[in-house]
Structures are given as structure tokens and as C-alpha cells.
Description:
Helix content is 9%, strand content 49%. By secondary structure, it is mainly β. The chain has a 22-stranded antiparallel beta barrel. A five-stranded mixed β-sheet has the order 3-8-9-6-7. Strands 1-2 form a two-stranded antiparallel sheet.
Amino acid sequence: MKTKKHRVSTGALVLCVACVSATAQSDDGLSESTYLSEMPVVLTVSRLPQRVDEAPAAVTVIDRQMIKDSGAWDLSEVFRLVPGMFVAYHASRTYMTESVVSYHGLMSETMSSRMQVLIDGRSVYSPLFGGVIWNDIPIVLDDIERIEVVRGPDSASYGANSFMGVINIITRHSADEQGKMVSFAAGRGRDETMARYGSRNGDLTWRITASVRNDKGEDSDIHNPPANASFVWTRNKFDDKRIQQLSLRTDYQINSTDTLEFQFGYNGGPRQAGETYDIVAPNKRAENYFTELHWRRELDQGGELSVKYYDAIESSTATLVQTDPAQPPLAANMNNGDVTARRHDLEVQHTFSSGKNTRIVWGGNVRHDTVFAPHDLGGGGIANAGTPDNYEVSAYDLSSIFGNVEWRAMPDLLFNLGAMAETNSYTGTAISPRVAANWHFLPGHTLRLGYSEATRSPTVAEKRWEQYQRITKNHPLLPDLLAEQVKAFDLGYLGKFRNLDVDFRLFQEHYTELIADHRDDAANHGNLNSGRARVTGFETQLKWDISKQTRLIYALAHAEVDSPDVDRIPYTDSVPTNNQSLMLTHSLNSHWRVSLIGYQTGKTHFDRTDYDLAQGREYFIPVVHRWDGRVAYSFRTGKGKGELALNIQNINDSRYYEFRHDNQVPGRTAWLSLRLESD
């Protein structure tokens, strides 16, 4: 059955190419400029600025208007528009009650540790559990210029944790945010106030943004739970948040060739984390900071030399409380939920041309992470064992060198060859190569063939789990954790018709050495890297300008998993067979703009998806359907302008679950937003 489906999708690609070729006029005299028609330029895939149809991997671009039209409240929600992206609202059950964003969804725990997330090239991947704490990132949606999502392994450019994909969030230049702006939003269970001011002094531009957001998250009680469910399965998680943010960006044009960029960000405030009848943090407080300094020098022939340094602190304080009446209260030496993770990172990058048809980027970076997490790295956090908190500071060091060569062999044929050699203090040295060929077989139509390898190094918590199994659980001969491995094959088609852009991708990804999350089974069998899976499927995204006023954006992903599911980790069921999204936008006139957004995610079952047929909890989390909408009115106010918008999520008031049966998303949620700008 699987072979038949894959033959159908391959045949569809071949038929599409044949039809395009048959309907085009033959012209043997086509020049390079013929093939270089207008296409979006991306910066993330290879670290070279490249047109989308010349990048060595599939990439989705979410621009500023798409973010606004989506009506997203949280940053994490935007990624529901990406083909193959799995998003679960406030599903994380460790450390922070946070949304999960994972390409494919291939995971067992509720932290998505197999995807790299960057902001302006700065990693926000959490050292403790991996993944991203989305609501703790010092950024507001309104400061984002665009988001580039690499769909597939990209360790050749960004290292070990770019295992399944990369999200790069690119913020606006301070020169593009001049003047004053205030906005207000209020609705069911949420409100936000934001202000921004930008100015210039000669060659220096700057902007500062501040915001306060209150978010009640999920409803406290699960709506209409199974009649025979126990009390704990009638309650959602604790996820209230108050988010206070402050960010500053300055850009200084030192001279005709040199620029200096400085950024500072803060995100803090009270949070809740935990589940009913479990260890919870009712009064957690987050304090997150970063500073970044980035110097660039323009070189001849489009080259550039850059040096970037950033220092980031991810911290929170919490006294943990045991809320299960059947369990004794936590002892004073087992309730310290404080976490402090700090990262120092220095990167140098050099881009230059070697002849008319060759561009090269190369560079390297060094990183030092430290993590202090007494409970999460102690016996209580690692395995619910009755041992004290661990007050040791864990360290992780990394160094790498990377490079990518882009060679235009012919006007219609482009090759990319890249690799990264990376050494870290947990798993040693690994090399991640990638090779891709892009053939513009007709103007506006491109085939891409690619192969890449990638790795993922263990998180600090996973390394601590290895130590716990070896010492506390008496497995002295347990091998050291290895880096996870993937080998990926990719065949893509990109077509630009008159009013329609098409991106179609076939892929097969072979995952090995997958780390077993907190499973005694794997240690008992003598291998914590026991997991393996093969994911095969296709994706497509379409952008259709139906008219000058109307646009339709559609995404579809189909994937199938073949895995032995060893050590009780059900990788086979952890990837939705199908998911899709649709965004229809229409400008009625210069003032009114409306959008309708739909999402569907196939059924899933993860290692942490608890089920009990006797209590009405099925094995699978069922298929999810959801519709959102937005109506916006733009107006002028003297020298300024404004926008009043009504945003509605979950229009059909579906009370569905995501990831687990104690994770029911809010019902219909609406809020009004008002935005005012002036010079």
C-alpha cells in the first residue's frame, strides 16, 4: 500500500514536469537572465542569499502580511501554516507549560528537541530539555519582518540540532520602524498592551518596543469529559502567564562598508506550570535576557565579513508543590524548581565570490552553555526518585567550522555543496554534509535533487539521564549517549505560473540512534540510542493570486513512518499521516481586509499520550479541524494611521485535544485589537 502511494506521488511530479515542458515553447538560446526571473530571496538555507528556487533545500517563507492575516496570538501558532509542521497548544508538561512546534511531529516527549530555532541567526534552542520556550522569547509579532522555515535537515549550515529543520525569525531593521506606535488587544482570557518608538540620529537608527500580555491559556476544566473519567482527566494543565517584554535594536552605519548592530531583549513575569495531581510550579517567575553585537563589512563583488557575539540567559525561579493527595509533600531539599541556563556564542562568517559562477561562504563558531537546575537534574526531576535536588552546574561546549559552495555550472544548472564539522563535549566530532542540484529546465520551473546528513547531540537533561541510569539504576556498562543521525533524500519541483506559485517536495528520511526519552526499557536493553524510523512522504504549498485583491495560500503534507517502535516509543503513530492549512485573504477596498484560515491535523499518538479505554481515552488523539478568521479596518488619523481588527480563533467552537487527553484547547476565542501609528 505504501509503495503504491509513493509511486502515485512520484508519478504526479513527473506528469507535472512533462505537462509544463510540453506547453512551453522551445528555445535553445535561453540566457542566464531568462532563468533568473523574480523570485523571493532567502538567507537561511545555505547562509548565502539565494532565490527560493536555487536554495539546496525546501523552504517556506512567512512574510509580515501573512502573520497579520493569520490572526495568530502566539508566535508558535504561525507555524501551523508550514507544510508538515505539527503544532500543539500549551502541550509541554515539563519545565514550562508551553506549545510544541515540531516538523513532522516525530518525538516522544513534549519538548521538540529535533529542530533548530533562530532569531536573526541567534539560537534560542534551550540547553536544558532542548526545543524552544516560545512565550519566553524576547520578541513581539509586530517586530518580525519574515520567517524562513527550512523543511528538512540543515546541520550542514547550523549544526547538530538542525536535525529535522530550521526556523529563522528575521526581525525588522530599526530604520523600518521609525516614529511612534501603540496597540491594545483584549478578549476572552487574554489582553495585551504594546508601545514602540523608533528614531534616528545621523547614521544611527534605533527602536525600542515594550509590551505586557496576560494570557489565561486553557480553560481550567475540560469541557464535556468522558463520563467515567477520573478527576485528574477532567482538568487541563496550569498555564496562566503574564508576559512582560522589552527589546532594543540599534543599527549604526559606521562608514560606507561597515555596520554595527546591537540588540537587547528581556522577557519575564509570572508563569504557571504543571498538571493536576502532580508536581506543579504555581508561582514560577521567568527572567530571560539576551544581548547581541553584530559587525558586518561589505567586500568587493558582493562579499561580506561578519562577526557576531551574543550572551543569553534563560532563567526562572519556582518553589515546587506536590498536589497529589496520595503523595507526601516535597521535602525542602527536593522542591527547588529554579533554572538558570546561560549561553555565550561567538561566530565569524566570510562570504565571497570565486569567479563569475562561484560563491562561497565559510566560517566557524564556539559556544559555551551552563545549566543550573537543582530539581530538573536531580532525582525528583529525572525519574521521580526520592533523592535530593542536584546543585551541580552542568556545562556543554561546542565548536564548529562550516562552508557552502554554490557553483553555477550552466545558466540553468546550479550545484550546492556544503558541510559542517562540529565538536561538542558530549558526543565528540561529527561531520554533516549536503549536496544539491537545482535545474531550471524551463524559465520559472525548477527541479531540485538533494541529499543531506545531520546529527542531534543530547540535551543536558538527556546526558543527566544517562548518568542516572549508569549510577543510580546500576547499569555500569551502559554505553555513552551517541548523537542521533539522519540521512535525507529530497526531490522537489518549484513552478511559477502566471498567478500561481507551486512548491512540491518528495522526501525520504532515515533516522537512527534516536534517544529513548526517560525509558528504563532502553537502559535495561543496554542502549539509550535504540530508536530508529524511516519517514517517507510528500509536501506541497501553493500561493494563488486569484485577483489583485484575493489570495489563496494552501499547504498539504502526507507522511508515513516505518519504525520497530522499540522500548515502547511509538514513532509509527507520532507523525500525522496528513495535515493541511488554508488561508484565504481578500481586500474589499483600501480600508477593509478579511481572512479565513483553516487547519487540519491527522490523528496522532505519542509516548506521552496517556490513554485508558475504560475511562474513555482513546489510543489516538483524533483528527483536528479548526477555522480562524480576521476582519480588519484601516484608517488615517491626520499624519498617522491605524487599524481596528476583530480576530476569532476556533470559530466552530471545537473542544478538541492536542498531544494529550488533558490538553484541551480553548473553545471559540475572540479579541479586538487597535493599532495606532504616527511619525
